[in-house]
């Protein structure tokens, strides 16, 4: 496994700024998520805000296949789309849920965060799925303290989700974040407590439960990016960038 990077006090201050912008984008977009809005309009608003803060959208141009780099500044994943949905001409409809994932690069450091929103009035099933996913993130974050292990986070997320009869996606994981958008260690949303790399002060982690109403199985669309549930049932996604300290976790994307 590649080396886990420990952040200095100066590094952490830079990350606070990137993460602040992530949080402000997610807060700003809440006012625009309503029936009739195109997802590329949300992307435009997010990119304008990020650049107004002298920062860069971390996702735009990201990818390992140079012929298929991510074309937008945010991910907009609707209903059965789990993550990495590409903004475009699709119009949000009453009763849908949409996950917005935002990455920001400023002063050489990344922040990463996501939230799922209701479009107008949604069903009780969707509302509950969102609540449980947000709660599972909170439970995972609580375990992100020095002296614990990575899979203490994983186990806490899985237990909260599966108590409600939902499932955690297994093909995708959270990750370290800092000078790179994706760093070591990987952070699964399932696993056995007490296992995995030791958490130490100065680690910065992107913890991100992806929770399906039905099966955990997913598939990738022909666009090479959009991940959706195999069974077509809805999915929710919440994410925070978290700093590990001796005194417990500190959420940077608030």
Describe this structure as you would to a colleague.
With 254 residues, the chain is of the alpha+beta class. The chain has one domain (9-249): Creatine Amidinohydrolase, CATH 3.90.230. It has 4 helices and 15 strands. It has helices spanning 9-30, 39-52, 124-142, 150-163; strands spanning 56-57, 74-78, 81-83, 97-106, 109-118, 167-168, 174-176, 183-187, 204-207, 210-212, 218-220, 227-229, 235-237, 240-245, 248-251. The strands form 4 sheets. A 5-stranded antiparallel sheet has the order 8-7-9-14-15. Strands 1, 2, 4 and 5 form a 4-stranded antiparallel sheet that branches. Helix 1 runs antiparallel to helix 2 (39-52).
List the helices and strands and how they pair.
Layout: H1 9-30, H2 39-52, E1 56-57, E2 74-78, E3 81-83, E4 97-106, E5 109-118, H3 124-142, H4 150-163, E6 167-168, E7 174-176, E8 183-187, E9 204-207, E10 210-212, E11 218-220, E12 227-229, E13 235-237, E14 240-245, E15 248-251
Antiparallel strand pairs: 1-4, 2-4, 3-12, 4-5, 6-10, 7-8, 7-9, 9-14, 10-13, 11-12, 14-15
């Amino acid at each position: 496994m590649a080396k886990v990077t420990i952040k200095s006090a100066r590094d952490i201050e830079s990350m606070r700024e990137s993460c602040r912008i992530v949080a402000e984008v997610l807060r700003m977009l809440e006012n625009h998520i309503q029936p009739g809005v195109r997802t590329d309009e949300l992307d435009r608003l997010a990119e304008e805000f990020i650049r107004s803060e002298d920062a860069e959208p971390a996702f735009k141009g990201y990818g390992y296949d140079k012929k298929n780099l991510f074309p937008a500044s945010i991910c907009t994943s609707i209903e059965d789309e789990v993550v990495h949905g590409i903004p475009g001409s699709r119009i949000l409809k009453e009763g849908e849920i949409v996950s917005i994932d935002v990455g920001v690069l400023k002063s050489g450091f990344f922040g990463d965060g996501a939230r799922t929103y209701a479009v107008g009035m949604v069903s009780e099933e969707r509302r509950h799925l969102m609540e449980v996913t947000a709660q599972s993130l909170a439970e995972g974050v609580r375990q992100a303290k020095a002296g614990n292990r990575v899979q203490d986070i994983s186990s806490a997320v899985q237990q909260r989700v599966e108590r409600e009869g939902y499932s955690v996606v297994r093909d995708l994981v959270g990750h370290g974040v800092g000078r790179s958008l994706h760093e070591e260690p990987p952070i699964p949303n399932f696993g056995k407590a007490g296992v995995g790399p030791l958490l130490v002060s100065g680690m910065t982690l992107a913890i991100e439960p992806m929770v399906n109403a039905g099966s955990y199985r997913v598939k990738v669309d022909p666009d090479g990016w959009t991940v959706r549930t195999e069974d077509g049932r809805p999915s929710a996604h919440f994410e925070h960038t978290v700093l590990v300290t001796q005194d417990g976790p500190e959420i940077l994307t608030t």
